[in-house]
Amino acid sequence: MPREIDVLPVQLPGREERIDEPACRSMPMLTAELLEAMAPCLDRPFALFGHSFGAAVAFELTRQLRHKPSHLFVSSWVPTDASASPVRPTRLTDPDFIARIVHYGGLPEAVANDREMMSVLIKPMRADVEILETYRPEPPVLLACPTTLLGGEDDPVMRPELLERWASHVHGSVPVLFPGGHFYFRRSLPALIDLVVSTLRPVLSAMPR
Prior knowledge:
Helix content is 38%, strand content 9%. It is of the alpha/beta class.
């Protein structure tokens, strides 16, 4: 990223430096913590970027924020209609759950086969899935900020045609597709960064120097 853009990644509980903290298991709990953490950064233009589970979180944060982001980037996720009945969290056995994550490209097989490492990772991963499967955004869900939709051309999870469901949530945004599957950015990162930077360039140009 150019020096004018500060990248502030989110570190959720149950991961890396926060590995000893219990993972969040509901969207309200998670967004409440994030809103508090973000508060000191909202006195300047900002954008949100989220991929898959992270896109759901970024979407919900945008809905709740009084001061809307200059831009929202949502990658490989589509909101479920608020009227849909919540589904039960995934009840797969640990081996089947891990196999599914590997199949969609979410884990290298070397990591998935490391029992000690997976004994630590499985709980926060299941917590993410539980949040996704029980999250139902409350109306209104029409976003009041510019939004860019992103996805992979060969995504078996969030197929490109599913991204058309965003029509009821954003104004005139056509999905931008990159080569690859659900984790397309692993092979298209330079192009993705170029798109984000060029999209934010008008915001940067308008900032006082």
